[in-house]
Design a protein that fits this description.
30 helices, alpha/beta, 6-stranded parallel sheet
């Protein structure tokens, strides 16, 4: 069948023309007054459209559009929103530098809005907030991802409480994406090689305020069916689908930017999925500058940034050698290296033929800057990947941390945002990087804050009841059971929410370990509690699905279905209701398996108090004035013991502290002490866990240095990079010839504080010169248990002369600390182009 295709757009009356521009920019996702414009057009249509502004415009009748085009009230609201939108786009921003060169931010998923389902969970939410915050701050950053035809699955539970999945098709022509075309109107396309077959992808743009996100799509006629399916589903398919997607994201993403005329001067790999981009960037510069592999790698190393999100080795993407050979057999020749060296780029032990190829290792080896997503996760990551830097003390492993944050105006409810705007003033919206504005929380009266929160709890209960009714009708429940849904939950009871991905390590059933104790709390008529659960298990995660079913069965078996609710199909819309309407946010992972977590931050900015294991972000944000900690950060080998101890600790907190505090009311009916904690929580978390703080950290630690590195490298026509590559080649060839022959000092068995310690080392350097190395005195307190130097200090030793073929290095330091002290000497690389000297295997100890 020969079908001619074309696109039909809504015919808007001239006064309503701004609606189309607003609908196609995700700025509206964090501006509720913009969303209200589409709700006011036709509320029923808005619901039928799955809350999609673009689709709503196409579904509203022409008669209704004509009517609204004459409504002076509506037009006044439209003009006010549109003018604010234009002011936002043209306004001054935190970043005011050049935008000629950009940071390209790569992520497998983006959670922007419920109407744009190309996300699955926390990683996507973070990426979406990253893009929105970049827009607020005016950063020279673009996003790169994939346009999934089906996105992530929709969840529903059968009558037995077992999770089922559906995969509805996305209709891009009724969503806020625009296909990128050439001046002649032809779609801009790129190709990548997939095991000897050419896969073609077209490019779509999503406007995010001032910023742009570009998404690749293989679902086009040029491709055979299997290649069209590469962008069919987020996290679907098998390992082969994943490697195809990651080739498209990394290699295809760089090519897409080139096709659009955008120069990715620096790249940020958000998780290892996009790490193949490093290979493509190396290939490009080898082709353009005729560099060898090492020269090209050193030219790009200072401009690559990598963020890891996974605190367990098994969670990092790995491909077996056969799959790598199928898709990358031609790459060693392209890069001018042998197959073993190519595989070694993705291995901790480069020549171990049994080790698979790891995307995280590839990213760590190709990026000068690496970080975890919380302080604790940085520590975990340094320990997990220490094998890449043998001999280097754990605290010096070059993996730092930038704690995640959330975009306040996306996640603070519209009711709470109205309240904050009144008391914080226009500065709150116009200068979001001024985090001190949250110190104005004390200006808000207890009454207003509590009434605002109560309204959100009422809306959460109404939302939950509606969802329950819909689910019961779908499962064929009798009318009596459907009517009972009207009594589900109470708008006045202490409401606990547990909403996140249902993986076993998150322990969604921890509170169910002692049924008798839990039922007593649920059935208390004077101080009742109620629990709302939500979250998806991965379609292949049977234990996760069983967790969900166990919660549903518990409620049924103990006749507490009105007090324990599982809400199906957790998405951004539901997250808004939960994070704004709950009173207490529960988080119970096995420490340290939660890299960061962000849902609790969203809740906290709405005044919802957290009760959590000291893991991820809560490990650094917790203090007794903002919530509760379950335990003190203990880690267990016996998981059954851990579950027993921590479930009892949770019950104790609920019974002795949380429930009494919530129901402790004055004569005015206000829980004053609870409200005091709400204010402290909002003030502290609003500042410390804002995505604007996060992006300022990324900018100052990574983005600006990486862009500066790029400009410096390009300015000298890569001379510095070639010099570094030659230096590292010389260093590796000469490293084994370096010998620390003697180490002498004036240390006595007992030294006095203030005494001078002089240390001398005789070192054989082989073909190297003293200025090509850093020789350091490494000294400090010695641990009684491990016999190692802890919290060491370092002092560079200077060459003072020769003793035959050996160079003499010396340094003098003062004895400032008492106790058992020690020192040694170590040698590291030294070159002006090194971002840090910790290159793989290049450290020598006395």
């Amino acid at each position: 069948m020969n079908i001619s295709t074309y696109t039909v757009k809504p015919k808007l009356p001239p006064p309503l023309k701004p609606l189309e521009e607003i609908a196609r920019n995700l700025w509206l996702s964090w501006n509720f007054d913009a969303v209200q414009l589409f709700i006011r057009l036709d509320y029923d249509v808005w619901l039928q459209s799955s809350q999609s502004p673009v689709r709503t415009l196409g579904m509203v009748s022409q008669e209704r559009l004509a009517e609204m085009a004459k409504d002076d009230s509506y037009l006044a609201a439209l003009n006010e929103v549109y003018n604010r939108f234009l002011r936002y786009k043209k306004g001054e921003t935190w970043y005011r530098g050049t935008r000629r060169d950009v940071v390209a931010y790569f992520s497998m998923e983006y959670g922007m809005d419920v109407s744009f389902p190309i996300y699955s969970g926390g990683l996507g939410m973070l990426s979406g907030d990253h893009m929105k915050t970049s827009s607020d701050m005016g950063l020279p950053l673009v996003g790169i991802g994939l346009l999934y035809r089906q996105g992530y699955f929709r969840q529903y539970l059968n009558a037995d409480g077992f999770q089922q999945e559906t995969y509805p098709e996305n209709d891009w022509y009724n969503m806020p994406v625009e296909r990128k075309t050439s001046k002649g109107g032809e779609p801009i396309k790129i190709t990548v090689d997939l095991a000897g077959r050419q896969a073609t992808a077209q490019i779509w743009e999503v406007k995010v305020g001032r910023s742009s996100l570009y998404l690749l799509d293989t679902n086009i006629d040029e491709n055979p069916p299997d290649i069209r399916n590469v962008t069919a589903t987020l996290y679907g398919g098998d390992k082969e689908t994943r490697i195809q997607q990651e080739i498209l994201l990394g290699i295809g993403g760089i090519r897409a930017l080139r096709a659009l005329g955008i120069n990715p001067a620096a790249t940020h790999m958000n998780e290892g999925h996009s790490a193949f981009l490093g290979l493509e960037r190396i290939r490009e510069i080898m082709d353009e500058k005729k560099f060898n592999f090492e020269e090209a790698k050193e030219a790009l190393w200072p401009t690559n940034i990598f963020t890891t999100h996974t605190p367990v080795p098994a969670g990092n993407e790995r491909f077996d050698v056969a799959l790598m050979e199928k898709y990358f057999s031609a790459w060693p020749q392209i890069l001018g290296i042998n197959w073993k060296d190519f595989l070694g780029l993705g291995r901790e032990r480069p020549f171990d033929d049994s080790e698979p190829y790891c995307m995280t290792i590839l990213a760590l080896k190709l990026a000068a800057y690496a970080n975890g997503v919380s302080r604790l996760h940085g520590e975990v990551s340094r320990d997990m990947w220490k094998g890449l830097w043998p001999g280097l003390p754990l605290n010096e492993i070059p993996i730092g941390h930038v704690t995640n944050g959330v975009h306040p105006r996306t996640w603070v409810s519209n009711n709470m945002a109205d309240l904050l705007d009144r008391y914080f003033g226009p500065h709150f919206e116009e200068e979001p990087t001024d985090l001190a504005i949250w110190n104005r929380m004390d200006r808000i009266s207890d009454e207003e804050l509590w009434r605002t929160h109560e309204r959100r709890r009422e809306r959460l209960v109404a939302f939950a009841r509606d969802r329950i009714r819909q689910n019961l009708k779908r499962n064929g429940a009798v009318e009596r059971r459907i009517q009972q849904a009207e009594d589900a939950l109470s708008p006045y009871a202490l409401t606990l929410a547990f909403a996140r991905r249902f993986a076993t390590y998150k322990r969604g059933n921890l509170l169910l370990r002692d049924p008798e104790r839990l039922l007593k709390l649920l059935k208390d008529t004077e101080r009742p509690i109620q629990l709302i659960f939500a979250g998806k298990a991965h379609p292949m995660d049977m234990p996760g699905k069983e967790l969900i079913r166990s919660i549903v069965h518990f409620a049924e078996q103990h006749d507490v279905e009105s007090r324990i609710i599982f809400l199906e199909n957790y998405d951004m819309a539901m997250a808004h209701y939960l994070t704004a309407g709950a009173d207490l946010w529960l988080n119970t992972p096995r420490r340290p398996l939660e890299a960061s977590g962000t849902s609790g931050m969203k809740a906290a900015m709405n005044g919802v108090l957290n009760c959590s294991i000291l893991d991820g972000w809560w490990d650094e944000a917790y203090n007794p004035e903002v919530g509760w900690a379950i335990g003190r950060g203990e880690e267990y080998e016996d998981t059954n013991l851990q579950d027993e101890v921590e479930s009892k600790a949770l019950y104790d907190l609920l019974e002795r502290e949380i429930i009494p505090l919530f129901y402790q009311r004055g004569r005015d009916g206000l829980p004053r002490e609870w409200i005091k904690r709400m204010k402290t929580c909002m003030r502290e978390i609003g500042q410390s866990m804002s995505s604007h703080r996060m992006l300022m950290d990324y900018s100052n630690k990574f983005y600006f240095p990486a862009l500066k590195n790029y400009r410096r490298i390009v300015k000298d026509d890569y001379t510095e990079s070639k010099s570094l590559a030659a230096y590292l080649d010389k260093l590796r060839r000469s490293w084994d010839t370096i010998k620390i022959l003697r180490l002498n000092s004036n240390a006595k068995p007992v030294m006095q504080r203030g005494d001078s310690l002089t240390v001398t080392a005789a070192i054989e350097l082989g073909a190297l010169l003293p200025e090509e190395l850093t020789v350091e005195l490494y000294y400090g307190a010695v641990s009684n248990q491990s016999r190692t130097i802890e919290q060491a200090r370092r002092a560079e030793m200077r060459p003072t002369g020769r003793d035959g073929s050996a160079y003499i290095f010396q340094v003098k330091v003062e004895c400032t600390d008492t106790g058992w002290q020690g020192h040694t000497v170590r040698i590291l690389p030294k070159h002006q182009a090194l971002i840090h000297p910790y290159r793989t295997g290049l450290i020598k100890w006395a």
